Amino acid sequence: MSAFPAADRLVAGIFLLFVATTVAGSVLAVFTTRIIRSVCGLALASIGLAGLYYFLHSPFLALMEILIYIGAVCVTIIFAVMLAEPDEPRPDKPTGRSILWWLGAIVVSGAIFWSVARLGLMGNWPTPAIDRKDGSVHDIGVALLTTYSLAFEVISLVLMVAILGAVAIARSGRHHE
Amino acid sequence: MIIPEPFRLLTSLLAVAGFIGANAAYLVWVERKAAAWFQRRAGPTEVGWGGLLQPLADAIKLMSKQIIVPPGTDRLLFCLAPVLIMVPAAMCFAVLPFSAALVPRDINVSLLMVFAFGSLNVIAVMLAGWSSRNKYAIISAARVVSQNVAYEIPMLLVVITVLMVSRTMNLTEIVAKQAGGFWHWNVFNLAANPLMPVTFVIFFICMLAETNRAPFDMAEAESELVAGVFTEYAGMGFGVFFMAEYANIVAGCAMATILFLGGWHSPIGLWPGVWWFLLKMYFLIFTVIWVRWTFPRTQFYGLLNLSWKILIPLSLFTLVLTSGLLKIFGR
Amino acid sequence: MKAPFNEVISGFVSLLTGMGITLGQLFRPIVTVQYPHQTLTMPKRFRGHILLKKEPTTGKSTCVACDLCVKACPSDCILVEGEKKPGEKRKSVTLFELDYTKCSLCGACVEVCPVDALEYSRAYNLASTSKQEYKVMDLVKRLEDSKHP
Amino acid sequence: MNLLHLQERPAVYLVVAASMLALGVYGMIRRRTLIGMLIAGEIIFSAAMLNLMAVNRFFVSDPSVGQIFVLFIMGLAAAEVAIALSIIIAVYRNYRSIASAELSELSG
Amino acid sequence: MLKVLDTSHSTGPQETFVLNLGPQHPATHGVLRVKLTMDGEFITNAEIVCGYIHREHEKMGENRKWDQFLPNTSRIDYLSAMMYTHAYVAVVEKAAGIQVPRRAEYVRVLTSEMNRITSHLLWWGAFLIDLGGLTPMLYAFDDREMVLDLLEALTGARLTFCYYRFGGLCDDVTDDFLTGTRKFVKHFRPRLKIFRRLVTDNIIVRKRLEDLGHVPAEMCRKYGATGPMIRGAGVAYDVRRAEPYSVYPELEFDIPTQPAGDNMARYLVRMAEMEQSLRIIEQTLDKMPDGPFMAKVPRILRPPAGDYVFAVESARGRFEVRVVSSGKEIPHRVRLRSPCFCNLSVFEEACRGMLLADALALMGSIDLVIPDIDR
User: Is the separation of the CB atoms in B202 and B154 below 8 Å?
Assistant: First the structure.
C-alpha cells in the first residue's frame, strides 16, 4: 500500500463514503413512504455496512452481509411486498394525536441516539488495538465447530424451525388446492 | 515482476472494463451469428466484414433512441435499475483468475465474493420490473425472484461440494489444485465424489437459470409477457440490461471453468495459460447459446419443480456423499 | 421411485438429442436468400400486376377496349378507353389504367380477355415513395416505354 | 480532529451504530405497515451487529468470536424475516391490509 | 393459531386484476384481444374481443358475381387458401350442376393436401415460438418454402393461390410440378422424423403440453370446435370421411385421433395429419388420370334458385359455405362457417384456472388464423 500515492487520504475517503452510505441507507429505509424504496434503503445500508466490516478486518463477514442481507433478506421482503400492498397509506391531515406520536418518536429515538452515542464516545474503553490480525475464515470455521458448536446447532435448529413455520403459516392460507 | 500498486489497479480496472465491454458487444454478434447458423440463415452480414461492426451499429442505434420514462413509474428506481445491474457483474470480474498471474485482485474469499455480488443481480431485475408499474413487468419480476431464489440454493450447494474437495475459498488456489491433466479437474475428480459430472451439470443448469437464459428466460418470456421486466425500457436502458445479461453469462461460464474445468490448466498437463481458460470459457458460452437456440422455454412451475424436486435433492445428496467420502478416506 | 428417476434420465437424453440435431444443422449450408444482393426469378406463371402485351409485328397492344376486363374485375380497378381510328376494323386502346392499390392479383382480367392482350408482370419487388405511382398505373404508357419486343 | 485515521477509531463505529439504532427505533414507532416495521427492525439488528464487530475489532483478543456472533445474528435475522414475512402474508390474506392500525381485532 | 389464519372464507376484496392480452401481443398472432381476469398468474376469466380485422367477406360475396368472389376465398384463411377455394367452387358447381373432370378433382385433392402441409408446418413453427423455441420455425419454413415454390410455379402465387375455377382449374399441372412433388414427399418424410426427435420427444415440450389445456369432446361439441381440436379429443370426425367430397373416397388415409384432449393430443394429431397428407399426395400422384382439367362452363353463371351447402375439411376443421341463389348473376346470400371462430370460442371455458403460460400454449394449440375468425 505504501507505493500508492495519497493512500491514506483515499482510504479515509472510502471509509467516509461507506459511513455515509450506511447512514443514508438507514435514513431512506426509515423515512420514505414507499416500501419498495425502504427496502432499497435497507440494501444500501447493508452495502455500507459490508464496507464497514471490511474496515473492521473482516472481509468474510462483509461478503456474508451482502449475501444474506441483500441476497436473501431484501429479496424476501420485496417478494412479500409484491404479494401484499406496495405502498403505505398516505398520511392523513396531521391530527393532534399523530403529531404527538411523531414528537414521541423523535424524542425517544433522539434520546436513544444521544445516550448510546455518548456512551460510545465517553465510555471508559480500554485502549484500542490498532493493528490486529483478522480472524481468518479457517479460525471462524474451527471455532464454530468446537467452542461454539452448541450455538451453531441451536442456530441451525432455529433456521429449521423458521423454515417449517414459514411454510406452515404461508400454506395455511392457500385456497387453490 | 512487481508492478507498482496504483498502476496495477488501474490496468486491471481498465482491463476488466474492456473485457466486459468487448464481450458484451461481441457476444451479441456471436449469438446472432450462431443463432443464424443453427437456423441455417446467414445472420448479420451488412455492417462491416461478416457483420463484424454490427454491435457498433446496434449501440449507435440504441443510444440515438429516446429514453422514455413512462408516467406512473417510480422514476428513481426505474433509472437506477440498469445501473444497478451492471455493478455486480463487473464486481465479479474483479476477482476472477484468468491465469496464475492474471488476477485483477487476488483475495482470500474470492469465491464468496463472486456469489455475494452475483446475488445482487436479482434485486436489479426486480426493481426494474417493479418500478415499471406494468402488469407484464410485475408478473415477470415475481417470476424472476422466485426463480433466482430457487436456483441459488442448488448452486451454492454444488459450490460447497467443490469447496469441500478443494478446501479453500480462494479461486486461484482452487484452480491451482486442479493442475496436471484433465483427470485432476474437479469435474472428473471421481475419487472425491463419483457424482462430480452430475454436479457440473447441476451447476451449469443453475447458471443458466441465474442468468435468466433460455430455457429459463422467465424475465423476458417474450411470447407470454411481451418483454417481461424490460417491457418499458427503451434505448440504452434496454441495451444495458442486454449487456449485463452477457456479462453475467461470461462471469457464470468463467466460474464454471474455474470451479470444474481446471481454469487455465491444459487438459494434458502441458502449457498452462490464459488461452486454455478462454478456450474453455468460450466453449461453455457457445453451449449456452446452443442451448438457447435449441429448446423452448420451460413452464414457470416446471422450472421451480426442477429446482426443488430434482436439483436440490441431488445436490444435497452429492454434498452428503462428498463429505462422507472425505470423512472416510480423508486427505 | 424408479419412474421419476427414469424420467430425469430420458429427459436429459432427449435434450441432448435435440442439441445434436441443431448442431448438425449448424454445419449445413444456409438456405435463405440474401435479398438485396440475390434476387429470385419468378416462375412463368407468376401473377404480378398486369401488363399490356406488345405485339411483335406492330409493337402495339392488341387490346380492343372491349371492357370485358373492367366488368370481370372484382375490385373495380381497371379503366379502359379506346377509340376507333379511321381505317381500322376494331377499336384500339388509348388509355389503360390500373389502380394497383386495389388490385388483388386474381387474374380474372387476363383470363377473360378475348384477344389475349394482357400478361402478368414478373416484378415482385415493387417499391415507390409515392402512392400515386400505384394508384394510377398507365399500362399503355408502360407498353410504349418498354424496351423488350 | 484528524479525518485521516477515522477508520481506526472505535468511537466512529459506535456512533454510526447508535444512529442506526435510533433510526430503527424511530422507524419502529412511526412505520404504519408491518413490512415497514420489519425493515426498521432489520436496521436495529444491523446496528447491533456493527457494534459487536467494532468492539470485537478493537477490544477483544480473539478476533473470531465477534464474527461468529455476528454470523449468528445474521442467521437469526434471516429466520426472523422468514417467519415475520410469512405471518405478514397470512395476515394480509385475512385482512387484505398490512397497515398495523387496521389489525385491531385483538385490541378489544 | 393456524385455524385463525385460514382465509378460505376471506371477506376482503378479491385480489384479481385484468390483463389485456392484445390486440398487439406476440402470442395472439395477429389482432386479437383477450381480456384476462387474473388471480396472480392464474386465469379466472377470459373474454375474447375479436373483430379487429373484420372485412365483411360474406357481404362482399353478395355484391359480386359468382366468380368474382373467388379471390376472396383464399383470403379468409390465407393458410388453407386451396381448401377454402375448393369449398366455394364446389358449392357453386353443386348449385349450377357442373361436372368436374376427374383430373381436376385429383389435382384439387393433391394441392389441397400440399396446402394442408404448409399450414400445419406454419402452425408448428408458430406454436413452438409461442412455447419459446425459436429455431424449429426456421426448419419448418425451410420445408414449407419448398411446397410454396412448387405451388407458386403451378398457380402463380405463394399464399393466395386462387387456383380452382368453377368446373376445374385455371391451368393444368405441369410435369415439373409432379416430379417436384414426388421429390418433396421423399424429402419430407425424414424431416418429420427429425422434427419428432427435436421437438416432440423433447422433455421440455412434453412437460409443457402433456395433460394441460384439456378440451374434451363434450366441450368441442358444445362450441362446434372441429378439426384437430375434436380429433385431439378422441372423436374421429373429419369432413373428408364424414361427408366425402371430391375424390377422397377413392383414396386411402387414416384419420389420426388422440384420446387425451390436451395440448399434446392436438399437437400429435397435426403431426400425424402431415404424414397422412403425404400418403394422400403419393396416391394422387400415382392415380392422376389424364384428360381435360376444365369442364364446359357457361360464361355467365346463373345457378338455379335454391339453397346449397358444401363443407370441406380445412387445415383447422370444418369449413362450410352456404350459398343461396335467386337465379341471378349475383348470389343472394353467402354464408361462411369458419372453423377458427368455433375453435377459439372453446378458449374462454378451457383456459379458466390455467396459468398464463399454459393458456398461451393452449391458444397456440388451437391454431388460430385471425382473419378466419373475423372473416
Answer: yes
Domain-located, residue D54: yes
- Residue E132: list chain B partners with CB under 8 A: 214-215, 217, 221-223, 296-297
pLDDT-derived band at C148, boundaries 50, 70, 90: low
- For residue E257, give its domain range: 60-301
Whether A1 has its CB under 8 Å from any CB of chain E: the answer is no
Mean pLDDT of chain B: 82
Per-residue pLDDT of chain D (108 residues; tens, 9 = 90+): 466 677 777 778 888 888 888 888 888 887 777 788 888 888 888 888 888 888 877 777 777 777 888 888 888 888 888 888 887 777 777 666 666 666 555 554
| Surface of B (303-322) touching C: CB under 8 A | 310
Calculate the dihedral angle through the C-alpha atoms of E197, E201, E205, E208, rounding to the nearest 10 degrees.
170
B220 touches chain E (CB under 8 A): no
Lowest mean pLDDT among A89-93, B280-284, E96-100, E264-268: A89-93
Most D-contacting residue of A30, A63, A75, A161 (CB-CB within 10 A), to test interface: A30
Tens of pLDDT, residues A71-99? 888 888 887 777 765 555 555 566 777 78
The whole domain housing D17 covers 10-101
Cell of C57: 409485328
Chains B and E touch (3+ CB pairs under 8 A): yes
Q: How many domains does chain B contain in total?
A: 1
Predicted confidence at residue D4, as pLDDT, reads 67
Q: Is E243 an 8 Å CB contact of chain C? A: no
B289 touching chain E per CB within 8 A: no
Residues 92-111 of B with CB under 8 A from A: 107-109
Whether the Cβ atoms of residue B172 and residue B106 lie closer than 8 Å to each other: yes
CATH of the domain at D46: 1.10.287.3510
Concatenated DSSP letters for B159-178? HHHHHHHH--S-HHHHHHTT
B76 vs A37: CB contact, 8 Å cut-off?
yes
Whether residue D79 and residue A159 make contact (CB cut-off 8 A), yes or no, is yes
- In three-state form (DSSP H/G/I as H, E/B as E, the rest C), the secondary structure along chain C is CHHHHHHHHHHHHHHHHHHHHHHHHHCCCCCCCCCCCCCCCCCCCCCCCEEECCCCCCCCCCCCCCCHHHHHCCCCCEEEEEECCCCCCCCEEEEEEECCCCCCCCCHHHHHCCCCCEEECCCCCCCCCCCHHHHCEEHHHHHHHCCCC
Would the CB atoms of A175 and E8 count as touching at under 8 Å?
Answer: yes
Residues of E in contact with D91 (CB under 8 A): 5
Helix axes A137-145, D63-95, angle to 10 degrees: 70
Q: Does any domain span residue E13?
A: no
Assigned domain for B40 exists: no
Interface contact flag, B123 A43, Cβ < 8 Å: yes
Chains that touch C (3 or more CB pairs under 8 A): B, E
Please say if the pLDDT value at position C130 is more than 80.
Answer: yes
| Cβ distance of A82 and B113 shorter than 8 Å | no
Q: Indicate contact of B with A: 3+ CB pairs under 8 A.
A: yes
CB contact under 8 A, E2 and A168: yes
Task: Please state the domain count of chain E.
Answer: 1
Asked if the structure places residue B199 within a domain, the reply is: yes
The pLDDT, as a whole number, for residue E8 is 40
**Closest-CA distance of chain B to residue C67, Å:** 48
| E174: CATH | 1.10.645.10
What pLDDT score does A139 carry?
76
Residue listed under C-alpha cell 466490516: A53
Confirm whether D27 is domain-assigned.
Answer: yes
Residue E31, domain member (yes or no) = no
User: For E286-311, what is the mean pLDDT?
Assistant: 85
| B247, B86 Cβ separation under 8 angstroms | yes
Chain C's closest residue to E155, CA to CA, is C45
Range of the domain at B303: 71-329
| Mean pLDDT over each residue of chain C, to the nearest integer | 81
CATH architecture of structural domain C50-145: 2-Layer Sandwich (3.30)
